[in-house]
Amino acid sequence: MRTYRYLFAIGVALPALSCAATAPGGDGTDGAVQIELHLDFNRPQTQGAERSFDAGAGGWADALVIESPPGVLQIVEGAEPSSRAVAFPLSCRASACPRALVQLPDDDRLDPNRRNFEYGARIRLPPDQTAVGSNVVQKGRYGTPGGQWKLQVDGAEGRPSCVLQGEVGEDRETVRLVANRGIADNRWHWVTCQITDSQLTITIDDMAQTIDAEVGSVGNAAGVRIGASGPKPTDDQFHGVIDDVVFCLDECRLG
Fold first, then answer.
1. Domain boundaries along the sequence of the chain
2. Which CATH number fits domain 34-254: 3.30.465.10, 1.10.3720.10, 2.60.120.200, 1.20.1260.10?
3. Is 17's pLDDT higher than 50?
4. Which letter does DSSP use for residue 217 in this model?
5. 59-111 per-position pLDDT tens digit
6. 95 to each of 14, 15, 91, 92, 108, how far by Cα in Å?
7. Which among 117, 124, 199 is positioned nearest to 150, based on CA atoms?
8. Dihedral class, residue 8 (left if φ above 0, else alpha if ψ from -120 to 50, else beta)
9. pTM score, two decimals?
């Protein structure tokens, strides 16, 4: 059974954990990294029975917690000292297992269309909490009009994979890149997916794998879901801990 160090000072806002992001010419001029979203879970908030996280400056709506039963999503120690993360429900064989996800509403800033982009998160997954379907972060689902981008961690070894669907004319292209190593060791790992020109790269910490990939245009009207593809029992629930969900456009390097 996994154990977490829980943090209960819900009303205290901690400094945002900065994400190292560099790019050629990344000096504030043309070509600098354009980080569209960095959700670090450091600013939880409650209003009545509703729980959410402040998604930061720039006009972002709050990241809403969707959970059953109430309180099943736990706020725990994050990847860095004094930071916070979210722990999702333990794996379960019952007919009505606990469910939790964090959701941001649709925003055009997270629709890359034909631009290069990168997305990912910090992940901690115990070896006894792997699953056949285990979704970390996604915008859109399989078959969503306009395509999807997704990061998941599947199978007994906990191997991350990047899944992208895009539109090329009237056709839909689907590309999946599975990492050749697992991360189910109960340690923090930076996992990112990057599409640049005609290549897709998955990076775990400082180790990268790349394949040729023609994705096309990716843009949809779906919100961003973290920790599960949805709230239904059949949706792919993640059972580990997530910190620092990040999305950026153009040539960038996260981690």
1. 34-254
2. 2.60.120.200
3. no
4. B
5. 788 999 999 999 999 999 999 989 999 999 999 988 789 999 999 999 999 99
6. 38, 40, 12, 9, 37
7. 117
8. alpha
9. 0.86
